[in-house]
Amino acid sequence: MDLVFHDAEVVDGTGGPSYRADVAVDGGRIAAIVKEGAAAGCQRPTARRVVDAEGLVLSPGFIDMHAHSDLALLRDPDHSAKAAQGVTLEVLGQDGLSYAPVDDRTLAEVRKAITGWNGSGDDIDFDWRTVGEYLDRLDRGIAVNAAYLIPQGTVRMYAVGWDDRPATEAELDHMRRLVAEGMEQGAVGMSSGLTYTPGMYAKDAELTELCKVVAGYGGYYCPHHRSYGAGALEAYQEMVTLTREAGCALHLAHATMNFGVNEGRAPELLALLDEALDGGADISLDTYPYTPGCTTLVAVLPSWASEGGPEAVLARLRDDATAERIRHHLEVIGSDGCHGVPMDWDTIEVSGVSEAALTDWVGRRVDGWESARRLLLEDRLGTTILQHVGHEENVRTIMRHRVHTGGSDGILQGLKPHPRAYGTFPRYLGRYVRELGVLSLEECVAHLTSRPAARLRLPDRGVVREGHIADLVLFDPETVGAGATYESPRTLPTGIPHVLVNGEFVVEDGKRTSALAGRSVRRAR
C-alpha cells in the first residue's frame, strides 16, 4: 500500500457512530479499512508510509459548498486558506458572477464587476472562454478539487447586457444554449445573485426556463435569492416555488436570516423548508458559522444605480443629484441591493480595497453616505466590506437542520478578509461541536462531507469507504479550531496535521506540501 493510518478514530461521514480502525490508501483511493477487533486472520495493512493516528479523527475531506476561489486557485498554488482547513473540494461560480462562459466583452465587464471578490485579474492569463476550457485550466493542477456552477448573471451579461428589462425570446434561447453547453462541459448546476446586477434583472419566468435546462442534466440551482432582510421569507418561498415548477433541485446559498427584522426568525424559515421537503421538494442549503456577512460596497446600491455596468455606476456617483437619489434609497427607502432594509452605516466595516492609497480605510466603519460615495469613486467600485447584521441564535438554529451543509462564502481578496475564508470548517468542529455541543461530531462531519457529496452527485466521495477516492482529513478533536479572527483573519487553523487530496498529502505534519493534487470535478453523466 502507499499509506496506512494506524489506530484512527474513523468518523466516516455517514452520521453513524465512530469506530477505531486502520485505513489504507493506495492509488489515490481507500484500499482497506480494518476495524479494531476484526476477525482472527485479518492482518493489519502495511504500507510504505505509516501514520500513527492514535487519538486523532480520520474523516472525509470537507466540501466547501460556497467558495469564491475562482481566481485564487490559479494565482495561489499554495491555497492554504482552504487546504489547511481540511477542505478537499470547493464549489465555484457562486452568486451568479464568475468568468465562464464569456466572450471578450463579457470577460472585461465581469472582471470589473467582481474586482472586490477576486481582484482585477491582471495577474491571470484568461486563456479560456467556455466552462469546459475553464475546467481544463483547473486540471493543470490546483491545491484542492473544484466543481463549477454556471453563473446566471454572467450568462445574462453575455446574452442581454446590463439592461433592466425582460430578455427577448432570441436572448432567452441564447441563454438556454449557454447553460446547456456549460452543463454538457461539466458544470454541476447554475447559480444566481439576485441582489447583484445584472442577474437580479431576471424575472422568475426567465429563471424558471434556465432551471428547466439545468434540471434536464441532473444539476441543481443555487440562488443567492432576492432578500436576506426585509422580505426574506417571501424570497425563500419564491425560490422553492420556482424550482418546483422547473423540476429542478434547489440549494440555498448562505441560507440565513439577517438584519434586525429577522432576529429569532430562523424557525419560520425552517418550517417553510420542512413543508416543502415533506411535499417532495429536493432542497439543501449551506451556511457559515459566523454572524457578519461579506460583500462589495457597490452591491448595496439600488439596482437602478447599477444598470449599464460599472462605468455607468461611476458616472451616477459623480453626479450630485443622482448621488443624492441613491442616498435616499439607501437610507430612507431601503435599497434592494441592501435587502430592502434602510442602511445603518455603523454595520459596514471596510475589509479590503483595490487602490493601495486607500489602505487606511481597511478595518474602519463607514461613517455615512458621503464617505461611502467617495470610497466607491476613488476605489473604482473595488471595495469589499463586512456587514455586521447577523444573529447567533439564527446561525445555530439553521446549522442543526437536516439538509444543512457547510459553505465558507470565503472572499480571499483584501487586507482584512472575513475570517470565514480561513476558519469556517475548523470553527464548526471546535466551537460548535466541542465547545458548545450544538452538533455532535458525527453529525457535523456528515454536514460537511456526505451531504454535500450527495448534492453534487459524487458517488465515490464524502464517505470513508473502501473504493472511495482518498480525500481525507486527520484532525485532533481536542484542539481543532479556527485560528482566524476578525483582527487576524489570515491565521491558519490548529489541530489538523494531515490532509489528503486524491490520495496525496497536501498538508503533512501541519505544513502545506508542494502537491497540486486537485482537479476539476465534473457533473456525473
From TrEMBL:
One of its GO terms (cellular component) is cytosol. It comes from the Bacteria. InterPro entries: Amidohydro_3, Metal-dep_hydrolase_composite, Metal_Hydrolase, Metallo-dep_Hydrolases_sf. Gene3D superfamilies: Metal-dependent hydrolases (3.20.20.140), Urease, subunit C, domain 1 (2.30.40.10). Signal peptide: none annotated. Residues 49-507 form the Amidohydrolase domain. GO terms for molecular function: hydrolase activity, acting on carbon-nitrogen (but not peptide) bonds, in cyclic amides. This is Putative D-aminoacylase.
